[in-house]
Amino acid sequence: MSANVYPVSNDIAKGALIDKAKYDAMYKQSVEDPEGFWGEHGKRIDWIKPFTKVKNVSFDAKDLYIKWYEDGTLNVAANCLDRHLAKRGDQTAIIFEGDDPSVSEHITYKDLHERVCRFANALKSMGVGKGDRVVIYLPMIPAAAVSMLACARIGAIHSIVFGGFSPEALAGRVEDCGAKVVITSDEGLRGGRGVPLKRNADEALSHPGVKSVEKLVVVKHTGKDIAWNDARDVWYHEVCEAASPDCPPTEVNAEDPLFVLYTSGSTGKPKGVLHTSGGYLVYASMTHQYVFDYHEGDIYWCTADVGWVTGHSYIVYGPLANGATTLMFEGVPSYPDASRFWQVCEKHKVNIFYTAPTAIRALMREGESFVNKADLSSLRILGSVGEPINPEAWEWYHEHVGKRNCPIVDTWWQTETGGILITPLPGATDLKPGSATLPFFGVEPALLDNEGKELTGATDGNLVIKDSWPGQMRTVYGDHERFIQTYFSTFANVYTTGDGARRDEDGYYWITGRVDDVINVSGHRMGTAEVESALVAHSKVAEAAVVGVPHDIKGQGIYAYVTLNAGEEPTDELRAELVKWVRKEIGPIASPDYIQWSPGLPKTRSGKIMRRILRKIAANEYDQLGDTSTLADPGVVDDLIENRQNRK
Ligand code: PRX
């Protein structure tokens, strides 16, 4: 833990929306009188029919329900677009910065509104209506935001699949949610290289299990030649041109679904995290405003991809609901060189910049000269998300990017939480590098021991949240039982986050990482079970066990122990083939960093793999294995140590 404390700067506190006294008072009200607090803040968005009920929640696993603003009706797209038109129709809503540094575009609220209305009508003409699912498999281009908002406008449920996922992964998600329409582009573009999205989509849709898709909408992006299925495929620009720009927003209930987003868990296949409309939008917009101390006119840039929840809440819904100017970046931090992020900040005079520790660590390795090339004087607030930020990276970010003038908000949250739960507020919270600090309004974290007893004072424990907040997920799409099992059965009457945390003497939270079999690779969440099932799907593999391994840039890397079928040769070629196989099954983000051939795995007598041992060997800490006497065959451990791959 870092010993440094950075007090709130006077300059920031002066103009900030929330100072220390206000934070204390508002936090107190939010937990003592959630109904009153959220009733008042629920009015920050426009309702068609105002709510009269605020909160209706039970965390009891036997009778679980989570409802916010349940008798209110609204339209999310109208909140992000229409309500701004009179005041800021000509203001830029989205700045698009292409992969190619010479490409950028400013899209006004008026223009975005028209694009959304046209595409919403086009979707309607394809038979998409309220409650239908639409899968979006697009690069970071404006059409991605247009597609999300077009679905929201007609009450359809979008499910974005990250463009880095493979055809297999896409097929699984399309099948699970039963999408009627899929939206993709000819290609994506990253670091000057094309990503064959249309080809991947064709392959996914040819999967035998995928039966629901009627139309594939294709955005022309790079102009690459692509295969075409006349019966199914339509061009995005053609259907938009043909559609009317007049599309009245569909009235939906606060608890009608807005989107499903698949995320990895500790078991089996990814689960469809379902978020609803009213509470989610209240929470996304409120956290965006207060956590980033967003002021009218600020240029705001979140570098995430819309394929992750960060892109949903803090590129699209939160900022647009607040009438902000949000920047969408198609490219990567290292192209054309390691100064790209900083060049973009200078070019568009970015005031608020939100990125992931893995990017900071990668850029830090390239040295300060790339940062110093750019004029970063427009920056006021910096943010971090997705994984713990090590104090060294925090200090570098603070000193070289923020020039010691910009507070860093280290925001802890999850796909499931819809928005930020633990975070500093720029004008209110003294900072400690590496700590996500204190809870946002209405959020009641607690630390439990493994028996479920609440721990007090400075301590380590399992991080849980004691009561609901409006942005919380409502269910796992199509599997409510899994929702209850995953989040409400480990400990009674609380939301279990799956993270461990430490609380210090000042009540600050330090997230220590997952306590389950989920790993975090470059801020991307990955279930070890998913990688294992990809590996065992290969005809030469008998068994596989996957663990996270500390990695300087990625935070965690992927370490796989593989047992081959009898008679198979453990060669370097096979190792390369298995890496390729996993990339094909899941996507490049799941590529194992190490594969160790393991004739046997350490198992208890009841057959359970002892992952603790595998984690230690992967981390090269084989002298700290602890008790191995309960293993069925303690001998396997010697072989594993002998052949470990991560020798330092
Ligand atoms: O382990 C925590 C880590 O990322 C997990 C959630 O991943 P995902 O659902 O993909 O959402 C990422 C973006 C919100 C958490 O369970 N995590 C996220 N933010 C932080 C973090 N760990 C430490 N510090 C953070 N600021």
Could you list the spans in which at least 5 consecutive residues all have pLDDT below 50?
none
Number of strands: 31
Q: Give the class from helix and strand content and strand pairing.
A: alpha/beta
CATH C-level of the largest domain? Alpha Beta
- Note the overall shape: globular
SS element count, helices: 21
Q: What Rg, in angstroms, do the CA atoms define?
A: 24 Å
Tell me the count of domains: 3
Strand content: 15-25%
Mean pLDDT: 96
In CATH, the homologous superfamily of the largest domain goes by the name: ANL, N-terminal domain
> What's the architecture of the largest domain in CATH terms?
3-Layer(aba) Sandwich
How is the largest sheet built, in terms of strand order? Answer: 5-4-17-16-18-19-20
> Which ligands accompany this protein?
adenosine-5'-monophosphate-propyl ester
Question: If you consult CATH, what is the topology of the largest domain?
Answer: Rossmann fold
Bin the helical content: 25-40%
Binding site for CoA: 190-193, 310, 522, 583
Domain AMP-dependent synthetase/ligase: 82-468
InterPro entries: Ac_CoA_lig, ACAS_N, AMP-bd_C, AMP-bd_C_sf, AMP-binding_CS, AMP-dep_synth/lig_dom, ANL_N_sf
Modified residues (N6-acetyllysine): 608
Structure characterization notes:
By secondary structure, the chain is of the alpha/beta class. It has three domains: 10-78 and 276-441 and 463-489, 3-Layer(aba) Sandwich (Rossmann fold), CATH 3.40.50.12780; 106-253, Rossmann fold (3-Layer(aba) Sandwich), CATH 3.40.50; 522-643, GMP Synthetase, Chain A, domain 3. A seven-stranded mixed sheet has the order 5-4-17-16-18-19-20, with helices on both faces. It has a five-stranded parallel sheet with strand order 7-6-8-11-12, with helices on both faces. The protein has a five-stranded antiparallel sheet with strand order 22-21-23-25-26. Helix 2 (20-32) crosses helix 3 and helix 6 (109-125) crosses helix 7 (142-154). The longest helix is centred in the first third of the chain and has 17 residues, at 109-125. The chain is globular and about 75 Å long. The model has no long low-confidence stretch (mean pLDDT 96). The structure holds adenosine-5'-monophosphate-propyl ester.
